[in-house]
Structures are given as structure tokens and as C-alpha cells.
Amino acid sequence: MKDLLEDLMDSASGRADYADVRHVRSRAESLSTRNGAVEEAESATSEGVGVRVRVGGAWGFAATRELDRPALERALDQALAIADAQPRAPATPLAPEPAARGVWESEVEIDPFAVSLDDKLAALLAADEAMRGDPRLAITSAHFMAFSEYETFASTDGALCEQRKVDCGGGISATAVGGDETQVRTYPASFRGDVMRRGYEHFVSLDLVAAAPRVAEEAVALLTAPPCPSGPATIILSGQQLALQVHESVGHAVELDRVLGTEASYAGTSFVSLADVGSLRYGSELMNVTADATNPGGLGTFGWDDEGVEGRSEPIVRHGVLYGFLSSRESAAEVGLERSGGCMRADGFARQPIVRMTNVNLEPGDAGTLEDLIASTDDGLYLETNRSWSIDNRRLHFQFATEAAWEIRDGERRRMLRNPSYAGITPEFWGKLDAICSPSEWRLWGLLNCGKGEPGQSMRVSHGTAPARFRDVQVGVA
């Protein structure tokens, strides 16, 4: 395959200003239980080659599942024809990048696809069983997911590199029903659980069986818990909720294609402009955000992105001020950056790369543990685990709801509250950040379904966070 891809790039070098090609072999497995029975056992594989060319300032892309030389040549011809049919655009250069060479593999102790289906289902059924018993529990479920991707990349710049990525994880969920009230609790995260760029060892480390009784008990308790009060309040967000907050109100807002308006037709634009770098007050002095493609275990971690840019760390917000963007080689050159941010990724072989988040992380602070942060809060709310979210297409006005909240009185966590929500305007909200827990509380959280692009692409990304406190935030009942 490497010889085929290199030969194809030799053929493309005289016909395009730039070209690259990716061979991708993917595998995915999804298992779930529901009320003590197996609900889902799905496995899927795909393999093919995607060819991308640039002629002048116009791009063309084509893909094929056939893996012989004639099929790859036909894909190249099709990509060139598509580029030729595009409206003419200025032939601006791509940001320079050393040719990607070598092999990179994510850290895997136990290959999840080597573990027997019986063993994986037994683990899920045990967790499901540990939640059941109370008649008010209408649904108990457990989930397992695993993904692998082998990719070979070559370009007319002389790149030739190989990568293997393996992702794995899962979670549990309990749904309680009483009267006209329905409540859900999940662990370790909502929306089917938590996934990392690790092997089966990550799924084992979640210890779903041990967490199951608490998850079930809290789902039932929420049925009769008092509703969340409305009005301004001091809030502490759990790490998982804060990860989604970072994703929606920071990560998407600093994608350079959105800022430049080239993603407007699908996912909107951004309230951020190019002129804001170095001047926009995005949040308080405590706010430091970094896009880091080198975090061990992150779903945005890789050796090279899908146009051959080496994964690295890039500052996005420093001491509350906008510092940088998530960019590609083309968009970086367009705005005068020396290098791409290394943020081009594609959903499989049949989609062309677009600007996507790497691991966009809120750096930890020095407020100690979550217990320390609660103890230093006289009155407020602790909000845990996302339930729903809404944000406008400029990433400015938002409302989020969480599964549960707890009152904080005199530095102690007290009664549980149901249906909490909070709302804000992005820079105003982040300006109210006044404490972040220390590195001991910081961890990566996986998000599995970040959608973007036309045709639509889904991407797995991670965000590193520790619980954090915000003052004077509008809260209410979802």
C-alpha cells in the first residue's frame, strides 16, 4: 500500500500544485444491554482510499473502496476534474510543514477487539444487574464501545507516515419514572459513557459494577428532589459538564474556518474575529485554554493530522485573552500564521479533512480538590453531568442543563436538586470564572459525536478539565 500511495503522488505531482492521499482501515464495535438483556451487538468495518488535490486555489476530492493502482488513478483523475470545475480562487500557498515520516501508535495495553464478545457482554450485564431492584427504575442500561483506525498518508510534499489509533470505553445509565417525572443518572458521563484513546484497560478501569448502585439510587432520589431554584447563583461545574462547556463555547468558536465564514452554511460562524487575537477578553485571568494533540489518551491525540501536520500543543486563551485558533495549512497561510495548528481530520477515508478540535483543554488551577472548592463556597450549587445543551450558531448565547445539582450551604454539599439549568453569554460567563481545582482533579473527558461539515462528519474529541467555580450565573429549572 505504501508503494501504491507513493506512486500515486508521483503521478499527481505534475498535475496538481499539491496532493495527498490516505488509506484508512477502520473497525467499530458497539454493545449495550437494557433491563438485563442484550440490546445491541454491532460491528462494522470499512476500508478505502481518499485522494485530495489542489490546483491553483481550488480543491478536489474523490474516494474509492478499490485498492488497486487503476482504481487509485481513477480517483486521482476524478479529484482533478472536481478541482478544475471549481470557481477559480487565488493560488495562495499552504503553510509550510516538514514532510511527515514514520510510524505512530496510540497506547494500548489490551486490544479491545481481542477480548471475547462473551466477556464484554458479561461485564455489561453485571453492571446492568447491579442497578436493578427498585420498581421505579424503568430502564437500566450499560454500554461498551471500541474503535480502531489504521491510516497510511502520503503527499506530494514527500510525506509518508502510518498511524494506528485505538479508542475504548463505556458507561451505565439508570432511568427512573414516578408520576409525571422522569429522571436519568449516568456514569461516568452522559451519552453512552466515556471513551479514551486507550485499550480495553480503560473500560475495565471505569468499574461500572461498583458505581451502579449509586447511579440507580440517585436516579430514584431525583424523582422527589426539590426543583432547582431560579435566579443568579454561584455555581460549581463538574469536570464532565465543564468539558462540554469548553467544547461548545470555546472549541467551536475558535475553529478558523468558522471565523473566516467558510463553515457558515452548516454549523454557523463565530462571535470571534481575526482582529480579536491579543485583545478579546474571553474570560477571567484564570482562564487558560490549550489545544494539545499530544495528551496521552486523548481522542484528539495523534502523530500527524490528516494533512500530515505533526500533533502538538497550541495556546488558545492565555490569562483570559484570546491567543490563537484551530487551523489548517490553508487557513493558517491565509491569515499569516507560520504553521498550521494541526487540526485537519476526516471521518474515515471517504470524507476530506476539515478543521476539527484536538484536545481543547482548560488548564487546572490551584483551588485544591472538589471537596476543597465546595468547602470554600459559602452558598451555591454544584452541577454534575450534562443532560442537554443549546447554543446559537455564533457560539455566544447558551443554555445547559445537567442531570443533578446539590445545594452548597456554609461550605457543605447538602440536598440534591432536580432539573437544574444555567445560561449565559460566552465571554461574560467565562469572565465569572473565579476558581479551578488543582491538577489532581484534572482529567480528559471524551465526546463522541461532534458534528460538522457537508456532507456531515462525526468526530470523537476530548477535553481536559477540573471542576471550576463561576459567580453570579443565571440558574433555573430545565
Compose a concise summary of this entry.
The protein is an alpha+beta fold. The protein contains eleven helices and 23 strands.
Task: Report on this structure.
This protein has 2 domains: 2-222, PmbA/TldD superfamily (PmbA/TldD fold, 2-Layer Sandwich), CATH 3.30.2290; 231-477, no CATH class. Helices cover 22% and strands 40% of the residues. It has helices at residues 2-13, 69-85, 117-131, 200-205, 208-222, 239-251, 256-260, 264-267, 329-334, 370-375, 426-431; strands at 18-34, 37-55, 58-64, 101-105, 137-155, 160-178, 181-187, 194-196, 231-237, 289-292, 313-318, 321-322, 344-345, 354-355, 360-362, 379-391, 397-409, 412-417, 420-425, 433-436, 443-452, 457-465, 468-477. Strand 17 and strand 18 form a beta hairpin. It starts with a helix and ends with a strand.
The best one-word shape is globular
How many structural units, i.e. domains?
2
Low-confidence stretches: none
Strand content range = 35-45%
Distance between the termini: 53 Å
User: Gyration radius, to the nearest Å?
Assistant: 23 Å
Largest sheet: 8 strands, mixed
- Tally of DSSP helical segments: 11
Give me some keywords for this one.
PmbA/TldD fold, globular, eight-stranded mixed β-sheet, 22% helix, alpha+beta, 23 strands, 478 residues
